[in-house]
Amino acid sequence: MTRKVALIGAGAMGGAIGTRLAETGNTLTVFDLDSAKVQALVGKGACPAETAAAAASISDYVVTSLNSPKIIDAAVFGSGGVADGAKPGTLIIDMSSIDPEATKALAARAAEMGLRWVDSPLSGGPEKALTGELTLMAGGETGDVEEAYDVLKYVASNYTHMGPSGSGQTTKLINQVLCGLGFVAVAEATQLAIDAGVDAAKIPLALK
Description:
By secondary structure, the chain is of the alpha/beta class. It has helices at residues 12-23, 35-42, 52-57, 69-77, 82-85, 100-112, 125-130, 142-152, 167-195, 203-207, and strands spanning 4-8, 27-31, 47-48, 61-64, 91-94, 116-119, 122-123, 134-139, 156-163. The protein has a 6-stranded parallel sheet, sandwiched between helices.
């Protein structure tokens, strides 16, 4: 069963998500301020929309992939935004990476307008989106998170409900902390090897 999905934000990440959704048979309508990015997805089977409201008005799901809470707020609640066109009960799936408190505020505002919200930041990048192998960590009401999977299953191989609104974003922050610590550990180990006169390039070979 195909899904009617609006995609708001067709940058590097959003474009890859949109490509995958279109290629897996979903009915995709896309809006981005950059018309060239929209046209790139039109070439892959998506339909263009003049506004986010227009995209949302003909869709059951809205996926946002944007850079900041301010941009998301404008795209959803601003003039011509998603909320101006979305049907009551429309599920908004925010795949942006923003702070948890901002997500909670956006979700609460959406609820006041009769819309539903799931935060589902990702790990894996455009390449994994194109092959349907993203790791997604979701926050929101249980039923909404389960329903969001009807769309997200096309782009993800690992999808976990982490808790209420904002929990997905908190988990993404934890992921980034762990990644950062890993980089620090590699840097320290490399310097230790150099200081001891060991060829640091051979360390991965010796410890694999």
